[in-house]
Structure formats: structure tokens, C-alpha cells
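Researcher: Going back to the complex we discussed earlier. I've cleaned up the inputs and rechecked each line, so this should be the final set. Can you rerun the prediction on the complete assembly and write out the structure?
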Amino acid sequence: MTPGSIPLVRSVAVRNAGRPGRTRRSGKIILNLVAVLVAVVTLFPIFWMISTAFKPATEIYSLTPRPLPTHWTLSNFRNVLNGSVIGMPYWVFLRNSLIVTVSSVIASSLIALVAAIGIARFRFRFRTTYLIMLLIVQMLPQQSLVIALFLDFRRVNLLDSLLGLVLLYIAFSLPVTIWMLRNFVAAVPRELEEAAAIDGAGPLTVFRKVLLPLVAPGLVTTSVFAFIFAWNEFLFATTFLGTDQSKYTLPVYVTYFFGKGSVDWGAIMAASALFTLPVMIFFLIVQRRLRSGLLAGAVKG
Amino acid sequence: MLSSAQQSDAAAASPDNRPSGRRPLPPSARTRSSARRRRRLVPYLLLLPSAVAIGLLLIWPAIQIAIYSFQNYGLPQVTGAEATSWTGLGNFRLVLADPEFWSSLRISVLFAVIVVPLTLIIGTLVGLLLNRLGPKMAAFLSTTALLAWAMPAVSASVIFVWLFDPDGGVADWLLGKVPTWLDGGARWSGYSWTNAPLPAYTVITLLVVWQAFPFIAVSVLAGLKTIPSELHEAARVDGAGPWRSFWKVTFPLLKPIFMVLVLLSVIWDFGIFTQAYIVTGELGNRDEFNLGIYAYDKAFTMPPAYGVASALALILTIILLLVTAGYVRASIKQGAIA
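Model: Rerun complete. Updated structure for the full complex:
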């Protein structure tokens, strides 16, 4: 036991007792310094992406990199947006990503909600089997399945098609979203639904007026997960959209610059920032709710 | 919907929950029982769409992989020039005789063995830190950490390749500033991190730890919040320092959470694809393949050998399913399946 570490334990005990005045100042300062250090290290790669995106080429390849651009430039973003790098503007890929993400999120949320109600509100044979199946299926390695799915999709002409990706993303986000949503449905007190039913509301009205509003926060959480999955997905997108550039989603687009002769890091970082920013903003808005959902979904199973 | 839920629950609870046809019913009860049977179908109907999607797009491909791995499935079979035929264990024999298989397996195993403990230790430390911080600082740190977690794997990988780029990357520049007696200095200028397995996987390790520790930290924090403060207080009164109190109080209580986190991390890191694929140069360096990339290369580099690739995919899947079996057991023990 080292003397310097005692305050840590005491500060917890004291804080839990509701008397913050008695915590040791020095211990607190050290903890906060460590926290700031961790935050800085964690943020650095993101910061570096943004900073590089605003640098002119001379500063990007400079032998002494500076944290901030000396001469800020928008030319990297301009090159990405007007498509002078790949021959097609950013908006094409943004549109593809939005189509794929939004439609798969909506569809998988609906399918998952219906399934979650089935699991949370009914007792039936195969219920446990179904739950265990969900756990196992979400662990199937995608780089194994991609081989069979590629051959299947070629057979039914779903390669180079956004619809094919939508179907895949629905299926791949279902196990996790069902697993999480069933906890949210189970948390809605049955008495509320019973009361509505006694008042003469049919099953659909009960669903619409009682269950849906109460499960809505859960739906937001699960759709964030489905959104992040579909928005970020790379393996299937790069494999299935191989030949048709106009179908590329943003992750495929960002890696397209790679290994094509000289690498334009300014453009890559600008593209990467434009790809990352929507999901980051979205995430910051919902992060409080997400944190609880992260736990409901992942730690509890 | 609701009342039927109640009824089906009651039916499940009552001892005579047998198919109603088996016992004689008074005529008046017959219509009621057929309605009940219809209601009993409701949960299956609710599960049907998800079951179809999962069955067609996850389970069926997994079965197909198992089938292909025993066939000579290649380009002639895909185009229809030749029929597929069963080759027994031929694909597996081919794989096991290939030195590339063993090197990729070694990389996958070593990577998991190093990265899993590393993420867990760092994540746990940050989780403990978050538990001690004031509410504002804790919110700030967990938000920044989760930003790294929410970062798309593609962006994160591209950024790390740039950080470690030989021309203008910030890592080489920083290492150049480190004094020579600490192995820093000029030898790092223009050092290429992606040309050999060890430096490449060092970059991937940093990248994966950076992206994965927030999840561990937040999970551990949630577990810590469930531990009554009296327990730590009692340990302190008994003279236990933070180290002892962690191993004697915190760890035993959080063991189920740690179990799940270890298994999840093993599954993620052993089969890691996107990060490894991008950092190692998109199939450019064969000596840097891990198991997943090796299988992918067999299937998607011309000429495709789907049979061999499927055999590899099957091996990968079986390894991960064995780990998953542990995960499912841990989940059942935790009472997650109820």
C-alpha cells in the first residue's frame, strides 16, 4: 500500500457520503491531470485529421509538422467536393451512403421492434433457442460470410447494387438491435398496456399509443447502432461494389485514393473528415442515451 | 396484442399447457380454443421477418461455406464451364500444407494475445479513473473516449497510416526528437511502418487499442456503479490499499463483466479485418496477412479459389464459435437470457 494512493479510496467513500469538502485537493488535481492527458491523447488522431485537411501540400509534407496550418486552405475540401481527385464529386458518394444507411436503419428498426415485442411479451417454445441463436449469429465472422454471400449475390444480380447492401445491413444489424430492443420493451410496465386494453383499445391502438411512445428512446438508441454500423461498413461495400465507382459508399471512396500511385494526404484527410463528421455530430447529440444503450445491449449480453 | 400476451403467459404457466386437441373439450370451448391457438401463433409471426432475414443472409451463407469447403469451387465452377465436385478434405490438406496459412494463423493468435490484455488493462484503468472523477470531468473524458469509439474503422485506419507515414508522418518526426540513448534519433526519419509484419502490427495495435478501450472503460464504469460504496469503505477500514481493494472487492464482483469483455475482445481482435486490411496495404504484403485477410485473398484475388477460401473461412468461423460458446455461457450465467 502506497501512501499516495490512499486519497483515491477515501475520496470515493467521502463523495458517496455526500461530503465533498473533505476530499484531498492534491489527489483530485492529479486525477484531473491524468484525465486531461488521456483525453488529449485520445483526441489527437481526430485533431490531426482535421488539421491536415486544412493544410496546403507544402506544409503536409514538411519535415517539421506543425499542429496547426500556418496558411489555412480549403483547397483539399474543394478538390474532394468537386471531384477533381477521383473524377466524381463527394455528393455522389454521400448520396449512396445516405440511401444505404437510412433505408437499412428504418427497415431493421421496424423488423427488430416487432421481433423484440414477440420476445419480451410472449412465452413460447424456441424462445430461448431464438435468443441463443441471436447471440451466436452476431459472432459469425463477416469475412467468412462474405465469400458465400458474394457468390449468392452474383447469382441473383445483387452485386454492384445498393439494394444488395441494404439487405445485408438489415440482416447484420438485426441480432444486436433485437437483443437491445427486447430489454427496452420488457421495461415498459405491462399494467399500462392492460389499462389501455381494458379501456377498449385494440392491440394496434395499444401498440401505437402506449408501447411505441415508451419504447421510442430505445428505438433511437438501437437505430444509432444500426446507423453507425451501416455508415461505417467497409468489407461488404468494397467487395460488392467493386466495378461500379458511381455506386461507391463513403468508406470505399475514402480508401479509393490508397495505393493509386502518389498519395494525396490532404484530400484523403478532407474526405475522411467529411465522412466522419456526420456520424460524430449525430453521435454527440445522442451520446448520453447511447451510453446507457451501450450497456443495456452489450454488457448484459 | 396485449391481452393475448397475458393469455399466452397464463397458458405457459398453467400445468395443462398441452395441445388442446389431446383432452376432450366441451363443444362451447372449441371456438375459444381455436382462437387461443391462433393467438399462440402471434409470437412466431412477430419473429418471422427477422428470422427470414437472419436465416437467408447469415445462417445460410455459413452453411454454404461449410459445403464449399469440401468442393473444388473455383472460376470454372462459377462460370459453369465445369461442374462442382466433392473433393473430401482436399482443400483442408492444401491449406494445412501452405506456409502462408501458418504465418497468418500465427499473426492472428499473437495479435489477439497482445491486444486483448492491452485494451482490457487500459480500458479498466480509464473506467476506474472515470469513477473517481467529478461529474463534469467524467462526462468530458467519456465523451472524448466514445468519439474514438464511434470513429469509422476506415477513417481511423487511414488517419493512423498517415500518422505513421514515412514522408511527413508525425510519428517518425516525434521519434526523431527522442534522444538516441532511448532508441530515438535519426534512424526514424523516413522509417516505413508498413513494410514488415512487426511494425505494421504495432500500428494496428495502437489503432485498435485506441478504438476499443472506450467501450471497455464505459462497461467497467457501469459495473463499478453497481458496487455499493460500503464494500470499498470496509476494505479501506481493514487496511486494504487500492491494489488490494481492486483485486479483493472490485474484480470478483465485476468478474462476469470482465468475462464477457474478454470474450468479445478476442472475437473482435482475432478476426480483425478492416484495420488490418487498410494498414497492411490492401492485400499488398502477403507476409502481413492475418487469417481473415488470407481467406479473403484466396477468394477475391484472381484466380479465385472459393473452395480453399471457404475451408479457411470455416476454420476461422469454428475458432470464433468456440470462443462464442464461452460468451454464450457467460451470458446465460449473467442471466441475460431470460
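Model: Worth noting: The first helix of chain A runs from residue 6 to 16.
Researcher: Good, that matches what I expected from the previous run.
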